[in-house]
Automatic annotation (TrEMBL), chain B:
Molecular function per GO: ATP binding; ATP hydrolysis activity; branched-chain amino acid transmembrane transporter activity
Gene3D superfamilies: P-loop containing nucleotide triphosphate hydrolases
Cited PANTHER family: ABC TRANSPORTER ATP-BINDING PROTEIN, HIGH-AFFINITY BRANCHED-CHAIN AMINO ACID TRANSPORT ATP-BINDING PROTEIN LIVF
Higher taxonomy: Bacteria, Pseudomonadati, Pseudomonadota, Alphaproteobacteria, Acetobacterales
Keywords assigned by UniProt, alphabetized: Amino-acid transport, ATP-binding, Nucleotide-binding, Transport
InterPro entries xrefs: AAA+_ATPase (IPR003593), ABC_transporter-like_ATP-bd (IPR003439), ABC_transporter-like_CS (IPR017871), BCAA_Transport_ATP-bd_LivF (IPR052156), P-loop_NTPase (IPR027417)
CDD domains to which the protein is assigned, alphabetical: ABC_TM1139_LivF_branched
Annotated ranges, domain ABC transporter: 2-233
Protein name from the UniProt record: ABC transporter ATP-binding protein
Length: 616, 233
């Protein structure tokens, strides 16, 4: 085969164009993080809003009537400015109250915004994809080395460096920019010099949101506007920001370039594993250079909320209520119909899933943004054993925790070296790698079609028996976790979390402790995943998806990370709420988002914490 | 001008300040003396409300600071120079000064970068240098200059001479005397009274978060017993 220079050049240019778009989003994310230390999950939602608003403004209203060059660009810029204003509003109404809160609560709040924006976009724009107009004057294509290349893509390639230049000027030549750079380094000192941080934060959110909005708006001539844009772009933007170094603008530019080109050439070289490739690069960077390519300073403080050194016993009434509820459940179950039994089995599984994550987040003091990887590993282990070896459920349920535990050992070995946001991002990267494998390795996993027919053995096929089985295994898992947390191992784990230096001084190996905890947690999540698979009779890549990881995170955080009761209460509350809302209203995400926001703002100690006396 | 009365402060559960009371009059330089860990820095942070006090009151020019955010405290005229200096390392000298800049105050000649370069000539020679690439002495000058850009009425100076070479300390003392001559009130903190003796009018001796003694600076310098009890020998 002749070497295809043309193809390479075009592919390189494609890479530059996507790098440019990626940079717009990532630069906003990184600027916001630099100053506010908030990892804004809703950044992708702002990008999506930018795209939808641009679509609306080019199709309706004054800019649409104006038409032509000014109509188009007026619409794009207005969309970006509107999103900037929305960003400022969000900062003033929500995030401003959370600067003192633990990082994970901030993430939770921004994730609530994701849910809210999802439904608002659905309500305003409907489920259909939207196709924007093409940009005036940039409709055609040009010849580059004899290959045709769209003008608009060339324009996008220019946008990235131009925005980078403008941002550089803003940061170095304006008072606002100088204050932003100062605040990135030392917020408190900036305040002590008389600068009102509120204005600064509102300003930086407006700036970051505007960049995201612009990034989204600029996409409308080249791709459809959909309700999935938010998640797709936020994951990529996270990758870029983490590779470049949180808070580093130059790093974001460099990383956007790397990721853009990796996508472009990855398709040529390894068409099947492009997704894996991106996350692999991120994992390698995080392991070799945890602060990112151009990032500075050590990884930030632990993400987990400060927890009391020992979990107090569950408050008496709550404990008895829980036990009574469990007993009542077992007694009442035979009289329930199929649907409630399915739900109850699901709840049991989710409780185990949440409780397993709690081991990492509470006593372990780490955060996992990718716990679905282990849930999915268990589910796929069971399903693959069934599909390829026709293994029955009993074998699957035994093998699943081992398989997930092994995956946990592998991923955990990398993840537990980091702390804070970086550790969280690395867990996310590994989960995405696992997801990509399940999605792209079609021969083995069935890809998007999943694996069907993974039913329980005959004796457990009845809904009632399966519920009892789920409840029993989940309860056993939770009790095991409880024993682990209270055993010397759990004490040592907390010791390394609370005072790493002292723990080391008395001979505790923090790395080993965290690694084992990570693997145990993964194994139990795997058991939950396998149960879930048998309950549904199938597995899909979505079992390992980000939404499922976020579910686990939300359950734990809603309940509170301090005690094991927290995730249990949180799982039931979250799953119950989601279930009820989905039945009552089409806008369950909107309501759920608002509820989560309210909880984060008013019950920062979690639900279980809310039942406890203050300072108890 | 500054009246601190019964100030209490905690770090988490640790009770650090147990009722610190002190006054600084207009145009006066008062000095907080005490060993490492006595609570000098904590007192300054509590006055600035960077560490919100848990008891007592701070009044500045008759105004109660209770409930104010740190930036509001700075705006009404309290300038704070932290012990660690906390220069913004990526920002140049000029940019560091810009962060501190606040509007002029009526009845007070406003500080400008040019005036500060005249006060600290070494800064004028390195306007474009990033703060992270300056010597300790230069950083201390910059920290003071940066705070002066806010046109404070009173300067809180936390251990400015710490870790500086004797020549630099002398230059610093000279600059501070110049500021004093212009009528700026200063609350200084020091472990070593030698540097403070040349500048301060009065001294407060601090130990484990309490004022044990106060009096004219000269009297403290004259009393070796007092210094042996509350300061390093
Ligand atoms: N951030 C902090 N957290 C907990 N304790 C602190 C902190 N900073 C200072 N302390 C304690 O407060 C006491 C007073 O400290 P400080 O005000 O810094 O003393 P000084 O400035 O006089 O050396 C010391 O016992 C010190 O250990
Ligand atoms: Mg001190």
């Amino acid at each position: 085969m002749a070497f295809d220079w043309q193809g390479l050049v075009v592919q390189g240019l494609n890479g530059l164009a996507s790098a440019s778009s990626l940079f717009l989003v990532a630069s906003g994310l990184t600027v916001i993080f630099g100053v506010s230390r908030i990892v804004n999950f809703a950044h992708g939602s702002l990008y999506m809003l930018g795209a939808y608003l641009a679509w609306t403004l080019t199709a309706h209203g004054p800019f649409a009537e104006l038409g032509g060059f000014w109509g188009f660009w007026g619409a794009i810029l207005s969309a970006a400015l509107t999103v900037a204003a929305l960003g400022a509003l969000v900062e003033m109404l929500v995030l401003r109250r959370l600067y003192q809160a633990p990082e994970l609560f901030q993430l939770l709040a921004t994730f609530a915004l994701v849910l809210i924006v999802q439904d608002v976009a659905l309500l305003l724009w409907g489920p259909d994809d939207k196709f924007g107009p093409r940009a005036p004057l940039l409709r055609g294509a040009t010849e580059i080395f004899g290959a045709r290349f769209p003008l608009y893509e060339l324009f996008l390639i220019a946008v990235g460096p131009v925005v980078l230049g403008l941002l550089w000027l803003l940061l170095h030549r304006s008072r606002f920019g100088i204050l932003l750079r100062a605040a990135t380094h030392d917020r408190e000192m900036v305040a002590a010099l008389g600068v009102d941080q509120k204005r600064l934060f509102t300003g930086v959110f407006a700036l970051g949101a505007g960049l995201a909005g612009l990034g989204g708006a600029l996409q409308i001539p080249r791709e459809a506007v959909t309700l999935h844009m938010d998640m797709a772009v936020i994951v990529e933007a996270f990758v870029v920001v983490v590779i470049g170094g949180l808070g580093s603008l130059g790093g974001a530019a460099l990383a956007a370039l790397i990721i853009g080109e990796l996508h472009a050439f990855g398709i040529l070289v390894f068409p099947r594993i492009t997704l894996v490739l991106v996350f692999l690069v991120m994992a390698v960077v995080l392991v070799l250079r945890p602060q990112g390519l151009l990032g500075r300073g050590a990884a930030t403080a632990p993400v987990a909320a400060p927890a009391p050194p020992l979990p107090g016993p569950m408050p008496g009434p709550l404990r008895w209520a829980a036990i009574a509820a469990a007993v009542a459940l077992v007694g009442v179950a035979p009289f329930l119909g199929d649907y409630p039994l399915i739900l109850l089995a699901d709840f049991s599984v989710l409780v185990l899933f949440a409780a397993s994550l709690h081991l990492i987040m509470g006593p372990g003091g780490m955060a996992s943004f990718g716990h679905a990887a282990y849930f999915g590993a268990g589910a796929y282990a069971a399903a693959l054993l069934f599909k390829h070896l026709a293994a029955p459920m009993e074998v699957g349920l035994i093998a699943a925790p081992f398989a997930a535990g092994l995956v946990g050992l592998l991923f955990g070995w990398f993840c537990v070296r980091l702390s804070g946001v970086y550790a969280a991002m690395l867990t996310l990267a590994f989960a995405q790698i696992a997801w990509s494998i399940s999605f792209q390795w079609v021969e083995v996993t069935g890809g998007d079609n999943g694996i069907l027919g993974v039913w329980p053995s005959g004796w457990a096929r009845g809904r009632l028996v399966f519920f009892y089985l789920s409840l029993a295994l989940s309860a056993a898992g939770v009790l095991l976790l409880r024993r682990i947390i209270r055993a010397p191992f759990g004490l040592a784990l907390r010791a390394q979390r609370d005072s790493p230096l002292r723990a080391e001084a008395i001979g505790l190996d923090g790395f080993l402790l965290r690694w084992i905890a990570f693997a145990v947690s993964a194994a139990l999540a795997g058991l939950a995943g396998a149960l879930f698979a048998y309950g549904k009779g199938s597995v899909f890549p979505s079992f390992l998806g980000i939404p499922r990881s976020v579910d686990a995170l939300l359950m734990v955080l809603l309940g509170g990370v301090q005690t094991l009761t927290g995730p249990i209460v949180g799982a039931i509350a979250y799953a119950g709420l989601q279930e009820q809302l989905a039945r009552l209203t089409d806008c369950w995400r909107l309501v759920l988002g608002v509820v989560i926001l309210a909880l984060v703002l008013f019950f920062p100690r979690g639900l279980a914490g809310a039942f406890r006396r203050r300072d108890a | 001008m500054l009246a601190v009365d019964g100030l209490q402060a905690h770090y988490g559960r640790a009770h650090i300040l147990h009722g610190v009371s002190l006054d600084v009059a207009a145009g006066e330089v008062a000095c907080l003396l005490g060993r490492n860990g006595a609570g000098k820095s904590t007192t300054m942070k509590a006055i600035m409300r960077l560490l919100p006090p848990t008891g007592g009151s701070v009044r500045f020019e008759g105004r109660d600071l209770d409930g104010l955010a740190p930036h509001a405290v700075a705006r009404i005229g309290l300038g704070y120079v932290p012990e660690e200096r906390r220069i913004f390392p990526d920002l140049t000298v000029e940019e560091n000064l810009e962060v501190g800049r606040r509007p002029p105050r009526p009845g007070q000649a406003p500080w400008t970068a040019e005036r500060l370069y005249a006060l600290f000539p070494s800064l004028g020679a390195m306007k474009k240098r990033p703060g992270g690439r300056m010597s300790g002495g230069e950083q201390q000058m910059l920290a003071i200059a940066r705070t002066l850009m806010g046109n404070p009425r009173l300067l809180l100076l936390d251990e400015p001479s710490e870790g500086l070479a004797p020549v630099v300390v002398d230059r610093l003392a000279e600059a501070l005397l110049g500021l004093k001559a212009e009528g700026l009130a200063i609350l200084l903190s020091e472990q070593n009274p030698g540097f403070a003796a040349s500048i301060a009018d009065r001294a407060y001796l601090l130990e484990t978060g309490q004022i044990r003694h106060h009096g004219p600076m000269a009297a403290v310098m004259a009393d070796a017993g007092l210094r042996a009890r509350y300061l390093s020998v």
